[in-house]
Amino acid sequence: MNGGIVVKYIYDDEHFAASDGCMLAETMHPAREALPFGGYSIAHGCVEPHGRTAAHVLKNSAETYVVLSGVGTLHAGGEAVPLRAGVCAAVPRGAEQYVVNEGGERLEFLCIVAPPWNADDEEIIERRP
After folding, report:
1. What's the pLDDT tens digit per position in 62-99?
2. How far apart are CA 78 and CA 96, in angstroms?
3. Which domain holds residue 42?
4. Does the N terminus or the C terminus of the chain have fewer Cβ atoms within 10 A?
5. Span 37-48, pLDDT tens digits
6. Are 56 and 113 in contact (CB under 8 A)?
7. Residue 9 falls within a domain, yes or no?
8. Which pTM was predicted?
């Protein structure tokens, strides 16, 4: 905390294999630290070259992806959206979704989830190896 401002470096956060198969670090979550907001959480996610996440649904939360680097496709609610650096895509709650990395470099993105991400809210539709 710096004068009321919370500052974190996303690459310092510990990443783990999320239930959908991407590598994820919960960067800012109001249930885990004192933040000046409570209505959403932010995570840094990445999918390795030619990889993909498992199809999943957030039953009560909407998710916005902000792509930092790489190329791929977001499949959500029966639509396919091309991903590249600078793309911001909002997925409504209840939409089945997954991300495919179609490039030769890591696909990196921020996940903004409102209300904040909760494990009980996520349902994996298809397991990935």
Report:
1. 999 999 999 999 999 999 999 999 999 999 999 999 99
2. 8
3. 16-124
4. C
5. 889 999 999 999
6. no
7. no
8. 0.91
